[in-house]
Amino acid sequence: MRAVVFDLDGTLADTSADLLAAANACLPRAVLGPEDALTAFHGGRAMLRLGFTRLGHDWGEADVDAAYPRLLEAYGAAIAVHTRLYPGAMEAVEALRRRGFAVSICTNKPEALAEGLLRALGVRDAFGALVGADTLPVRKPDAAPYRAAVERAGGLVGRSMLVGDTETDAKTGVAAGVPVALVTFGPEGRGVERFAPAALLERFEDLPGLAQQLLA
C-alpha cells in the first residue's frame, strides 16, 4: 500500500504559540514571541537556549536539561490553547485515505504529547500510526522512525513519501530513500527550497495529486 507520512509541528499544525508559551513559563521572564516560531519548531531545547541567551545569562546545557522537564509539563498542561491545524490539512488526509493511501505521523515531539495534541484537536483517528521522538531509541533524521510510521500504518516504505517542513525532514527522506515534500506555509516560507526536496507544497489542496505523481 502507498503511504504518506506527515510531520506534525509546522506541517499539519501551527503549534508555535503554545510551544513558546511553555518555554516562557520556564524562564525568569517572557522573552520569546511570535517571531521565534521557527525556533519553536526545532524543539524545546532550542527555545530554551534562545531564551537563556536573550536573558544574557551565563548558561550551559545543564541549565537546558534542568528546565526541559518543566517545559514539557507546562506544554502538556496547555497543549492546544492556540494551536491550529493548517487550512486544508485534514481534507487532504481524508482525500488520501479515499484514494487508498495509508497515512501516519512521524514527529520529533514526545509520543505522549503528540497523542495528546492530536486527540485535543479531534484528529487522532484519521492516522493509522504515530511515531514520536521517544517511540524508538532514535528519532528523525534517522530512518528507523519513518520506516516504523509507514509499516505500522500498513504501508510499504518503497511506495511512501514524507511531508514536512524542516531540514530534519529533508534528511529523513534521504536516509529512508523516499521523496519529501516540504511545505512553504511555515515560518521559513519558500526558504525550505534550499534543502532540495522532491517537491514544495504550497497548499494542502495539492497534496493528493502530488502524492499520486511522486508515488506513481
UniProtKB/TrEMBL annotation:
Keywords: Hydrolase. It comes from the Bacteria. It catalyses: 2-phosphoglycolate + H2O = glycolate + phosphate. Its EC number is 3.1.3.18. Gene3D superfamilies: HAD superfamily/HAD-like (3.40.50.1000), Putative phosphatase, domain 2 (1.10.150.240). GO terms for molecular function: hydrolase activity. InterPro entries: HAD-like_hydrolase_sf, HAD-like_sf, HAD-SF_hydro_IA, HAD_sf, PGP-like_dom2. It holds the Pfam family Hydrolase. Pathway: Organic acid metabolism; glycolate biosynthesis; glycolate from 2-phosphoglycolate: step 1/1. Belongs to the HAD-like hydrolase superfamily. CbbY/CbbZ/Gph/YieH family. This is phosphoglycolate phosphatase.
